[in-house]
Amino acid sequence: MPNRPTVRFAPSPTGYLHIGNLRTALFNWLYAKVEGREGTFILRYDDTDRERSKPEYAEVIATDLEWIGIRPDVVVRQSDRLELYRAAAARLREAGLLYPCYETPDELETKRKRLLARGLPPVYGREALRLSAEDRARLEAEGRRPYWRFLLPNFDGEPFAQQRTEIHWQDLVLGEQTVDLASLSDPVLIRADGNELYTFTSVVDDGDMGVTHVIRGGDHITNTGVQIALLQALGYEVPTFGHHNLLTTIDGESLSKRSGALSLRSLRGAGVQPMAVASLAVLTGMSGSIEAASNLPELGARLDLSTVSASASKFDPAELDRLSAEITHRLEPGDIRTELEAIGVPPESVEAFWHAVRANCVKMADAAEWRAVVFGGSPVRPDLGEDDRQFTREAFDLLPDEPWDERTWKGWADAVKAATGRKGKALFMPLRIALTGLDHGPELASLLPLIGRERTLKRRP
């Protein structure tokens, strides 16, 4: 394994990244960067689909990766590299390896159905190679525009006599893999509208940019035999391939950028801890338990591609709350002082506030709610009922003078108990609701000094 691998993540800017896309990005990033490796991570936008690709999606992709901690070493856009693809196509044409075809989609579908009806594999029969120059001129005069196929090297002399031609590679995830090129149709590399397809542009980019390791989803594995043949035809070094399994929801549904399911943008907006998302994306389907890593190097130490399950892995989005809470509870005040002050926690109260509320925070956004409870105005309270309202009024009359500390709550509660005869939940719950507007939350011994006597009195029912 080279100490300086070059990897790439090549999203299409046609929607928002979801946690399944992040799995691929992180497998590449961690493989290139952890354990002393000083590899190169390329962010390559597959934006040749001019109708669906949007600059705003590309911007959000970059923001999402930065949120996770992924900072690309190189950023390129395929739309800036069209001349490179056209030059590569010209080389293939000159070598007789890229040939024009004229069948319509309906004609191709009819051929496919006939082959299947005869019990034959639906492999393209290279009929376009039999066309003469006159045939091609006639078809173009009829208004047909050619699309272009790559002639697979699965024959010896006679292209219509395909023979078994095995392509082998040692997959980082799946181990030894073999594809027989005779079982495949010659792939279309250029559409009739002149636009190059992903199979072609990806190979040219990988070869031109010196990508040493291609780590991607298992849905691309059928492309690998073709892409290796294409890399060799263009004279490029063949990278090491790894095909990881895909993530699905707990119901087995696939993820889609267009559906927005579990998009990083939505998770980021909801205040989920980024390392909770990263941990779930990487560790789902691997051996061992899913635990929240504190940072990417720690997560990378657990990455072992050879242990990734070969089948799709289901994950429970509810795990994000558990992982996010694990990370949040480990944070120290100094780690998040800036964030806490930004939501209005007084600088002198940051440490005491965070120690008081962090066990009740699943994510940092929850801290803002507790800030409002502690430092805001009188909370909206549910109806206490006349008995509890009268009880709390009497209790507030017994508030001790300041200074207040964590012993104040017990002293006050003891005084209220002695004066009213109430104890246990009948004493604590009405006071909690009066003070915070909630029937749950951090220990009142920690909250009361933060609320202070002045704000507490304003909360008297």
Say how many strands there are. 12
Question: What share of residues are in beta strands?
Answer: 5-15%
CATH architectural category of the largest domain = 3-Layer(aba) Sandwich
CATH class of the largest domain, anyone?
Answer: Alpha Beta
Number of domains: 4
Shape: elongated
- Poorly predicted regions: none
Q: What distance separates the N and C termini? A: 70 Å
Largest sheet: 3 strands, parallel
The secondary structure category is alpha/beta
Rounded average pLDDT: 92
Q: How many helices?
A: 18
Task: Describe what this molecule looks like in 3D.
With 461 residues, the chain is of the alpha/beta class. It has 4 domains: 6-84 and 198-246, Rossmann fold (3-Layer(aba) Sandwich), CATH 3.40.50.620; 93-188, Glutamyl-tRNA Synthetase, domain 3, CATH 3.90.800; 331-370, no CATH class; 386-458, Arc Repressor Mutant, subunit A, CATH 1.10.10. Helix content is 43%, strand content 11%. The strands form 5 sheets. A 3-stranded parallel beta sheet has the order 1-2-3, covered by helices on one side. Strands 4-5-8 form a 3-stranded antiparallel beta sheet. Strand 2, helix 2 and strand 3 form a beta-alpha-beta unit. The mean pLDDT is 92. ATP binds at residue 257. GO terms for molecular function: ATP binding; glutamate-tRNA ligase activity; tRNA binding. Residues 7-321 form the Glutamyl/glutaminyl-tRNA synthetase class Ib catalytic domain. Residues 392-459 form the Aminoacyl-tRNA synthetase class I anticodon-binding domain.
